[in-house]
Structures are given as C-alpha cells and as structure tokens.
Write a structure and sequence with these properties.
Largest sheet: 5 strands, antiparallel
Protein name: WYL domain-containing protein
Number of helices: 11
Pfam families: WCX (PF25583), WYL (PF13280)
Strand content: 15-25%
Oligomer: single chain
Strand order of the largest sheet: 6-5-4-3-7
Structural class: alpha+beta
InterPro entries: CBASS_pafABC_assoc_protein (IPR051534), WCX_dom (IPR057727), WYL_dom (IPR026881)
Radius of gyration: 29 Å
Length: 325
C-alpha cells in the first residue's frame, strides 16, 4: 500500500508539472492508473476522496498547486507551475553540511527523526556535500527524548496551544493538575524541561518532563500570558535550582552523601559525628531539591527554607504541615 501510494503521488505530481494548461479531475483520472482503477472499481466519490487526499499530501510535501476555477468551461483545473516549484540553489560548505548532519543525529531517538532524515536525503539529491561520514567524531552527541510528554508538549509549544497534565513536584507524595501555556523545551544536564506560563499560579514556571505523569492534553483557546521573545530555559532552570543566586543557605549534610550539593558548595566545614556543614547558593526551587536527600540533610538556615523543606518531608510522610495539626 505504501509503495502504491508513493507511486500514485509521483504520477500525480508529474501530470501536474508536465502540462502547459490546467487539467481537470476527469483528465487526471484518465492519466493516473490508480485513479482510473478506483473509479472503475468504486465510484466517483471514492476517486474524489483519493484525489483530495493526494493533493493535500503533495501540498504538505511542498508542491505548489494552482487551482483555476474557470479553466475548462466552468470546470476546475489544476496545475503545478515549474517556475513556482523550482527551489533556489542551495550552497553549503563542508562545515555547514556537517552541522546539518549532526543536528539530524541529535534527534534520532525522537519521532521527528524521519523528517530529519528525509531532509538530508533531499539535500544529498541536490548535490550537497552531505555524506554518512559528515559530522562523525570520536564523541557523537545524542539528546534522548524518551519521556512520553515530549512529543505532545513540543507540538503544543509549536502550535501555541494550552495544555494540562498531572505533575509531581520533587518531594511531593502525589501529582497535581497543572494548566500551562508551553513556551519552549530544552535539554539540560540530561533532563528535558518545559518552560511556560502556569495559569493557576499566574507566573512563569519550569517543569521537568520526567515528573509529568499521565497524558498531556491539549486545550482550546489562546494564550493568556505574554510569551517572551526569547525563552532561555536553561537560565530559568538554573535560577529555580539555586544556581546564580545571590543568597546562600547553610545545611548539615551526612558525610558520603549529597554529592550534587557538594559540587556547588561555596564552603564546606567538617563536623563531628560524620556530618559536614555546607554553604550553598539559595534560589527558587531549592527546597524541592533538598527534600530529596531525606534524613541525610538538615537545613540550618534561612528559616523560610528550613520550614519549606520540613513541610515537604511531612507531606511525603502523610502528615499535615507544621502549625496545622
């Protein structure tokens, strides 16, 4: 079936491009064998459906098809003019070709890998210096996109469609519903993040895709928040992770534990009893990260950070926040 459709599309494209005048549906039906068979074995309606689908597929592939409403004594005519379907000359040097090859390989684990491979094939057919060896090196970067939420969020961000999903914050015992206007996706330190506008909180937020549970569902309507001209997802994630913050926090960390915290510690002081005292950058979202260390970490200050971490740990244990018992 796939081969038959590809052959049918090719024949239709050739008919439309190799004529000096618009062709009617009847003329195209007689010229393309698959259409003639569909008409003879089915009906006029079956042929019309097949033709309309094929025409839409060719347009999606980039073929410009002109429609003349009064070309043939009132009948609609179709024509693909060569001057409108001729691509300008593409000139790439070796470095640019290698960069394109590398970009296609970056996405090889995502569903759009087929589109990327197809684009490279077209460039090769056009004489571009793109080979299987282009971009090869001892280290070949790959960006995995295994999270189920990746594809629907990428599509929603491209189409500017709001979404809803269940999201489990770090240290939380259960997921909660979030309504988000997705801006951009970016991979940072091996994890995919979404930056967007949280409608319920009326503020910009960052979501780690691995913490999204269930399906991402698209919603109708327009964005309500202002979309920034440039979304630096890494900078937002870093800010929420406490990196680049001007404030600092003091924690007590069990020796032999918490290596991610130790790598960004500003100061480290050894204590008795197998503990160390660390001064670390303090920014939005730090409480969620600290809660993940459980009994291996104690927050000494500031007080609001300590209270936040305690509340998160109590939530995991199924207890009410302090002051609400």
């Amino acid at each position: 079936m796939a081969i038959a459709k590809a052959e049918r599309l090719m024949n239709l494209a050739l008919c439309l491009m190799n004529t000096r005048r618009p062709l009617s549906k009847k003329e195209l039906r007689e010229s393309v064998e698959a259409y003639r068979e569909a008409w003879q074995q089915g009906s006029e309606e079956a042929f019309n459906r097949m033709f309309e689908r094929d025409k839409d597929d060719l347009r999606e592939l980039g073929l410009v098809i002109d429609v003349d409403e009064n070309a043939l004594d009132g009948e609609v005519g179709y024509l693909a003019r060569r001057d409108r379907n001729r691509l300008p000359e593409i000139a790439l040097d070796a470095e640019e070709a290698a960069a394109l090859t590398l970009a296609a390989r970056v996405w090889q684990q995502a569903k759009m890998s087929g589109a990327a491979s197809g684009a490279l094939q077209k460039l090769r057919a056009g004489g571009m210096p793109i080979t299987e060896e282009s971009g090869n090196s001892a280290l070949e970067p790959r960006i995995p996109a295994r999270e189920a939420a990746f594809e629907p969020l990428l599509t929603a961000a491209r189409d500017r469609r709001p979404v809803t999903f269940e999201y489990r914050k770090a240290g939380a015992s259960a997921a909660e519903q979030r309504a988000v206007e997705p801006w951009a996706l970016e991979c940072w330190r091996g994890h995919w993040y979404l930056a967007g506008w949280d409608r319920d909180r009326e503020a910009a937020r960052v979501f780690r895709l691995s913490r999204i549970t269930g399906k991402v569902r698209s919603r109708a309507g327009q964005f309500t928040g202002t979309v920034p001209e440039h979304v630096d997802v890494r900078a937002v994630v870093a800010r929420f992770a406490g990196e680049g913050a001007t404030a600092s926090a003091t924690v007590r960390l069990r020796q032999g534990a918490g290596f991610p915290l130790r790598t960004k510690a500003l100061k480290v002081r050894a204590l008795d009893g197998g503990w160390d005292e660390l001064e670390i950058p303090y920014g939005n979202g730090l409480a969620a990260d600290l809660a993940e260390f459980g009994p291996d970490l104690v927050v000494l200050g500031p007080e609001e950070l300590r209270a936040d971490v305690i509340d998160r740990l109590r939530a995991v244990a199924g207890l009410a926040p302090e002051g609400q018992q």
